[in-house]
Amino acid sequence: MNFIITLLVNAGILLGMTYVLPTVRIKNYGTAIVVALVIGLLNTTLGWVLRVPLNVVTLGFLSFFVHLVVTAVMIKIADKLFDDFEVTGFVPALIIALVMAIVGVIIQH
């Protein structure tokens, strides 16, 4: 149940960021749900493979920042996979990752 709530909230964040950031474009909420699901799956698989070595190199001291950067990379990969989802530049992807992380912490507690 928590996964579904997180998925729907992340989809809402993606859709909401289209109104805040002019460099983010998404077609509709249905597309946002699918993109959020793909970002979650990428973060769970490929993101884990990227995060582990980076956390080892930084001795875990920068794990929050590593997580943000890896999530932003997953958002950019999702940008390349979908025609109806576009994030122009890395900074907007980083901002989306930051908002997702902050809201995720709020939802978990």
UniProtKB/TrEMBL annotation:
Entry protein name: Phage holin family protein
Keyword Transmembrane assigned: yes
Key words, A-Z: Membrane, Transmembrane, Transmembrane helix
InterPro entries: Phage_holin_4_2
PANTHER family, per database record: SLR0284 PROTEIN (PTHR37309:SF1)
Regions that span the bilayer: 6-22, 29-50, 56-75, 87-107
Organism name: Pedobacter gandavensis
Keyword Transport: no
